[in-house]
Amino acid sequence: MNTLFKDVFGIFKFAEGLYAGIRKVLIPPKAYSWQTFIYLSIFSWVLSYCATGYIKDIIAFFGWLFLIAGTAWYTTEDPLRVPGTFMPVGAVITGFLVSVFAFGNQQDVITSRTIVFWPTISALITAIPEFIEGTDTDSKARIPKPEDRQRIIILVASSMLLSCWIQFFFVMDNWFQQYPSLQADTFKRSAFVVRTEERVKIPQNGVVILEKLQPRVVEEIAQRPWSEVEKWLLDAKQRVITLGTEVIQKNLGRYEEKELWHVEPRVANTKSGYILDLLSIWIGPSSKPRGYYLKKSCRIEPVAATNNSGDKIIVAEIECDRINKLIVGSPPPQQ
After folding, report:
1. How far, in Å, CA of 73 to CA of 293, rounded?
2. Over the stretch 39-59, which tens digit does the pLDDT of each residue have?
């Protein structure tokens, strides 16, 4: 029985200690405390949820200010330092909240600018107390000691450098989204970019251009009278460029790289007809000095047919390759 009473007493003792700890965190010891700011922020957000118009934005604005102030106060009471620096972990948390408040929006709370400015803002928050001396009620500005100035400069400068590298990552990511054909290139000679995924062997946008262009060309040539087809081929450059421009605008409209693709034809005579090469030429940046282009070859030959009147005529038959060839170098001149 004694053991049972001790166990029950121990459970009550543990519950009492847990309740005291929770009560210490939730109930502020005085009105001017970090808990008060946190509760004010929660109260402001509840009010802003019920409000409308500019009043809602004003209340939410003060809610963010209360949250930042309360978090900063709580995390600096007993600061835990980031390993290897004198930056408190609380400054990192407060810097994140300030960055979200300054650069976030209702659609995207965390944006690329939020992440980019986070390290620099955290470093500035860490450095600000070094320029203030005194208590909360009696404080004044001061110039830090020479040894403190050095570590402040190193911390802020290294944080700004980290922000620059994060910004560089977002810039590269945006480039690859707007210029996906760059992923088919090599970055072996780059001092900044390291490929982490398997290289794309052929630029997909170049393939899309040829695959969408081919049926447009076939439609204008197939089963047409041979004399009309020969006239079409004489003016093939202008016709293919016009069709290619329409294809690029329709299928690559959401990419910035649409301006870096150019379509041209190459026509060559054969014993039985013509060879029409459709070229999708990349005119953007490339590690290859002479660039590259994709080619799809189509064979055009005359065949006998019968028209609606029963007369025999010569029409064109066109057959295109199924595979697009990637060729490094400048396109061949028009014969």
Report:
1. 61
2. 777 777 777 777 777 777 777
